[in-house]
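We treat protein structure as text, and this decision shapes the records that our systems exchange. Such a record has a labelled line for the sequence and another for the backbone structure tokens. The record that follows is passed on verbatim for readers who wish to inspect the format:
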Amino acid sequence: MNLSLSPRDPSRSGILSRHARRLIVHGAAFSLIVTLVACAKKEQKPAAKPPVPVAIATVERKTVPVQIKAIGNVEPYATVAVKAQVNGEVLKIHFTEGQDVKKGDLLFAIDPRTYQAAVKKAEANLSRNLVQARNARQDAERYAQLVKDGIVTSEQYEQYRTRAEAFAADVSADRAAVENAKVELSYCFIRSPPDRPHRESGGPCGEHCKGQ
């Protein structure tokens, strides 16, 4: 068996040695950079979170309304139509839309001056006829005694008696007129039916309403 050994090329060996040294230097530099970056990350502290804003209030116990916020159509389970019973100008609306009102609360005020004047006129007529009825009754009582004494005739007595009865009937009619005028005056102040929220006013102040 023949073995032949060729001599090592010195130029090639130098090139390989320089290449190896470069690889070692580059690897060491990369390792150093990685180590420095890792140390920097370890030393860096996380940023502090900003404080959370809070609000404080005094604790109290009370009844609060139940509210449901939603989008949709709402229909009332019952409606009541409030209509004026007399004619006149609406002076004031005593509620706001959506306000809860109780039975008997004032809702509208219609100009009452015409109806106040009607009450005063009816009361004046009643006062006048009361005086006339009292005088007529006294005359009838006097003539009743005179006719018993034979001083006046029965026909004269009947005239005074009839006159007294007529004035008594006028007084009754005047009392009814006073009551009617007061009722119409009360219609100028429209009040709420049973408890419920009111949604619509029906018209602005100053609008003329017609009784139904």
The beta strands are 88-93, 100-101, 106-110, 189-191, 196-197, 208-209.
